[in-house]
């Protein structure tokens, strides 16, 4: 890679000596997503101009996303031929999605937790769906949003597996901490449980023959 100190970014060198900026790499990803959108709408991607369809996009970013990176996203969307309608934080995006499932004349205060690959985004928002003078409106008020850096999703997996390990050891009066196979099974099950908990309030964990023919459930 090549460092551009003036712009505060890097360029990646490809095998054929082609040099790509971070905006161009992001544009390639956005372009692929754009292609998927056209396919979903049954529009020929190669003849998109004749279809007279313009696809815009809204991109969600972490709460602490700096202005410089937002400007880079704007440039990337232009390269990809997308109209960037807006940039919102991921917690707000989750609250908007939640508002669509809200019952009429309901207000709910919710904490949203986004466990990413590197950081954790947490926010609190109140979502309401009310009818006034026969007009129905959905309102979202963000009260707080914070990023917990270097607390990745992998750490959540490890915390869950540690909790399950202690429960298993207490139940069967054993020590499996040094059993690599058992610990690997626990970590895999913890990751699966974490993903399920993103859509459910609770989930069950079952590992058959975790240790000495004893199962975790």
TrEMBL record:
Keywords: ATP-binding, Chaperone, Nucleotide-binding, Stress response. One of its GO terms (molecular function) is ATP binding. Gene3D superfamilies: 3.30.420.40, Actin, Chain A, domain 4 (3.90.640.10). It comes from the Eukaryota. It holds the Pfam family HSP70. GO terms for cellular component: endoplasmic reticulum chaperone complex. GO terms for biological process: endoplasmic reticulum unfolded protein response. The keyword Transferase does not apply. InterPro entries: ATPase_NBD, Hsp_70_fam. PANTHER family: HSC70CB, ISOFORM G-RELATED (PTHR45639), HYPOXIA UP-REGULATED PROTEIN 1 (PTHR45639:SF3). This is Heat shock protein 70. The lineage of its organism: Eukaryota, Sar, Alveolata, Apicomplexa, Aconoidasida.
């Amino acid at each position: 890679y090549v460092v551009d100190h003036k712009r505060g970014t890097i360029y990646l060198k490809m095998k054929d000596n082609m040099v790509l900026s971070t905006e161009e790499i992001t544009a390639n990803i956005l372009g692929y997503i754009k292609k998927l959108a056209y396919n979903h709408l049954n529009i020929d991607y190669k003849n998109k101009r004749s279809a007279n369809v313009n696809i815009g996009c809204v991109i969600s970013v972490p709460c602490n996303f700096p202005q410089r990176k937002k400007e880079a996203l704007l440039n990337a969307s232009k390269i990809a031929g997308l109209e960037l309608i807006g940039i919102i934080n991921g917690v707000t995006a989750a609250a908007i999605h939640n508002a669509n499932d809200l019952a009429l004349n309901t207000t709910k205060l919710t904490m949203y937790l986004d466990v990413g690959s590197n950081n954790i985004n947490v926010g609190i928002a109140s979502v309401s769906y009310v009818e006034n003078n026969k007009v129905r409106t959905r309102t979202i008020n963000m009260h707080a949003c914070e990023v917990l850096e270097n607390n990745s999703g992998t750490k959540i997996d490890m915390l869950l597996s540690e909790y399950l390990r202690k429960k298993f050891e207490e139940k069967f009066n054993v020590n499996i901490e040094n059993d690599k196979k058992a610990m690997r099974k626990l970590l895999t099950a913890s990751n699966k449980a974490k993903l399920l908990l993103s859509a459910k309030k609770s989930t069950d964990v079952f590992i058959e023959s975790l240790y000495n023919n004893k199962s975790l459930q």
